[in-house]
Amino acid sequence: MVKAITHTERMNRRVNRGRALRVAVCLLLLAALSGCMQLNIGLTVNADDTVDGQLLLTAQKSLLSSRNKNIPAAFAELRQNIPALPPGDETSYEDSKLFGTQINYRRAPLASFDSESVKLVRDGEFYRFTLPLDPAKYGGKIAQQNPQQQQAFLKLMSFEISVTFPGRVIDTNGTVNGRSVTWKVDSNQDKPMELRAVAEAPPRPSAAPAAADADSGGFPWLLVGGGVLLLLVLAAVGVLLLRRRRPTTPAAPGATPPGPTSPGPPAGAPGPG
Fold it and tell me: Which of 104, 107, 150, 245 could form a disulfide bond with 139, CB atoms 3.0-4.6 angstroms apart?
């Protein structure tokens, strides 16, 4: 006996097929858009807790133009699916195949690298770098907060990251070469939860005793004593210079310099007639 299909069952099947079709279309769209996205970062951490380097986020022009003939507008829309990047001197990037944005860092403070996408902080005697690869942070706009689509968006991205530290690298899930750590995660490859590295930080410069006294509110005796000593030395040098430059007292006008004394007549000799 063939069971009759009710109207409600037919409607449910149509709804399920429609949902499956929409998911498939979204995944294809994500593959087309995110598969061409690359995030390249090269950073150098300086011993004074500043950072130099460059960040490059790009997408293929051919796929951007297939979505919007205005390539910059298509890229701007796609970038909304990427977590916030560390701020810096940002310019547009373009070559024959790629379009994107380039951010340059020159002596940027570590505080600038506390973003959703990149975290680089000093923790006492260590530098800690993390780049979270949380699917919930990627593909939010296109995927419409669908976890499956967000995972697909992230999986189809590629990452190439390099960080150089001033001290020894002591822990990482990347490849170590001296004081540098690199990661290369290709498109359509399973992603780790995060890219991480920990390196030794050089000791911070110790504060001078006078500066420490000033900061603590005490009287700066060392500065006062040094100033008095400097004034005494300058005064002594000035007195010596004045003595060297004082002219010799000239002879009085009309005075005849004393000549040799004429010998007198011998004792008992007759005087002049």
Answer: 150
